[in-house]
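Worked problem 6 (solution included).
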Amino acid sequence: MLEARLISGRREAGCDEAGRGPLAGPVVAAAVLLPDDYSNPLLNDSKQLNEHQRDLLREEIEREAIAWAVAVVEPDQIDRLNILHASTHAMCLAVQQLDPQPDFLLIDGNRFYNETSLPFQCIVHGDALYMPIAAASILAKTHRDEIMVRLHNEFPHYGWDRNKGYPTLEHYRAIEQYGITPYHRRSFNLYRQHTLFES
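Solution. The predicted structure is:
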């Protein structure tokens, strides 16, 4: 069972993102403020759950949370900001949508560029330790996956319904055959190393 709070009685929102590593698609962040009495033994880091479990938890979190929000930063902004800044910017955008606002932020990871007026703490592997961060990880992951399935319908050659934009062999081969799309991150290395010196 994950911890409900870092400090008992404080209104803490968990923040996490999905999509730092892909070659294509947005980075998506979520912020979640859970009730004091919320618990679910299934709740965990989204990477430890299967798709069906994530979908069930997403429905419950969105129904039971005091407040939740999701924010999206698109590839062109990722290219301008760099992926770390884009990820924390997305978290801040999500936090700013919360109503009511929390007293404190629990941030998954070890770096955070705070654009809010709220105090925060970074927690490495926080999505496997604290319920609000785990809840945020599930919302960020499921919302991003939905986006990538929609983008797959527009550009079906890249397998985004399966690889969600991550650097799989299938994805690299499609880039080599069909080129890049407006949804690819041009600041990322979009080609397999052995093809860099071909052509």
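Discussion: The domain at 12-195 is CATH 3.30.420.10 (Nucleotidyltransferase; domain 5).
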